[in-house]
Amino acid sequence: MAGLIPFNRKRNDLMNIGFDDFSNMLDDFFTGSWPVQRSLAADTFKIDIQDNDTEYIIEAELPGVKKEDVEITLNEGRLNLSVKKEEVSEDKSKKFIHRERRYAQMSRSILLADSNDEGIQAKLEEGVLTIKVPKKEQVDTSKRIMIE
């Protein structure tokens, strides 16, 4: 174990200090994840699920996402949330040498076994998507049997 060398670093011996070590230190600093930033390109969206007596309430954090970029489907009790976000800047008056575009796609799937596919409500407000999924009415099929 003592002989293992971390990726992109050299041994820290006194005889082995040079320009390459300084370069590796700069690479580690600029490619690290500090400060921690969350984006659709590098992370999935977070969800909270509440189970009430009559419905499920799902809240998903979608900062910077428009409602046109969100697709919600419910199929056989499985709620699928998918987000597709594409950022393209068009400016034809400038002569570009280098131009970048971003495209991010992610989805989450939640099993809501007793969900009713009628009456689902969804609202996107201030970066939070709130979905209300009603539950199917529970029919008590158990019979009480009296012993003689």
From TrEMBL:
| Stored InterPro entries | A-crystallin/Hsp20_dom, HSP20-like_chaperone, Small_HSP
Family membership: Belongs to the small heat shock protein (HSP20) family.
Sorted alphabetically, which PANTHER family does this protein's record hold? HEAT-SHOCK PROTEIN 20 FAMILY MEMBER
Identify this protein by name. 18 kDa heat shock protein
| Residue span(s) of domain SHSP | 38-148
Alphabetically ordered keywords of this record: Stress response
Q: Does the keyword Endoplasmic reticulum apply?
A: no
- Which one Pfam family would you cite for this protein? HSP20
